[in-house]
Amino acid sequence: MSLKSLEAFNAIIKTGSATAAAKQLGLTQPGISRLLALLEEYIGFQLFYREKGRLIPTDEALTLVKEVELTLMSVDRIALLANNIFHSNLGQLRLVAPNSFIAGPLADVVTDFLQKHPRVKISLDTHSPTRAREIVVHRSADCGFIQLPENHPGLICHHLVSSNTVCAVSSTHKLATKKVLSCKDLGDEDLILLGKGRNSRLQIENAFLRDKIPMQVRLETHTVAIACTFAKRNIGIAIVNEMLAQQYASEGLVLIPFTPQIVHEYAFITSAHAPMNRLTEAFYQHCKTYFENKF
Fold it and tell me: In what residue span(s) does the HTH lysR-type domain sit (predicted)?
């Protein structure tokens, strides 16, 4: 039993003739007749009889009408679903990223993507870098964002965006009007730094060591948000990722470039054990375009 035979049967029911059904389906009248004959051969009984030039359905045919219509409607729904999947208009995307990245630049990226794909659902989660790697490797998440460098053999990393390092300074601080701040400028200042062990933290410490300037770390934290909050209250000067700190810049807090330049690089990560599905690929391309235009 073919789908085309069912379509021919349904068209004849609705139009009352093979000629009209052929016109509706864009086929020839002999073509419609052949499809009807194949269907009758398959099911083993006659479906129509002729009366005054019209094809009249038998009682058996009328019994089949509703089920045939439901079947054809199901096929249409499958076609629509497949089309939505093809154009990434349907599905659920699971992603993992650092909390500060989600609250910062990723918020606009996700919002814009959801507006363009209203039937897509997104699950956002945040974990430590170690845990995030494993979640993506084992495909518990479709994709993620991580700070480079990254060399996990189970991940595919697509470089996405780079960000410089800045000093978050209270607008009332004596250095707030400086165009650039160096290690020498910060030698006598209380500092707010993100937790030890980060690659960027090591680069900051090495910069001070090279210039033989002691660091006066007054407050340590693990988020850019907290660092900027205390910098705004003039507890110290926070040395932070510019891209993540931009959302906290206000009348009470200014962001001043830090020298030497320290670059923070982020990648879009997926599992090396399977290719990206269409929705993940669409989201990746969306992210890539957004960051290329924004930064």
Answer: 1-58
Q: What is the CA radius of gyration of the chain?
A: 32
Q: 62 and 97 share a domain? A: no
CA distance 12 to 287: 50
d(CA 274, CA 145): 17
Under a CB-based contact definition with an 8 Å cutoff, are residues 256 and 167 in contact?
yes
- Dist CA 282 CA 288 (whole Å): 10
Compute CA 29 distance to the chain's CA centroid, rounded to the nearest angstrom: 49
- State how many domains the chain has: 3
CA 204, CA 225: separation in Å to the nearest integer? 19
* One domain for residues 29 and 99: no
Q: Which residue has the tokens 């507890």?
A: 235
121-135 pLDDT per residue, tens: 999 999 888 889 999
Read off the pLDDT of residues 234-245 as tens digits, 9 standing for 90 and up.
Answer: 999 999 999 999
Whether residue 248 sits in one domain with residue 110 = no
Q: What is the CATH number of the domain that holds 139?
A: 3.40.190.10
Give pLDDT < 70 ranges for the chain. Answer: 80-81, 83-85, 87-88
Residues 135 and 275 in one domain: yes
Count of CB atoms situated within 10 Å of the CB of 164:
16
The encoded tokens of residue 290 equal 């957004």
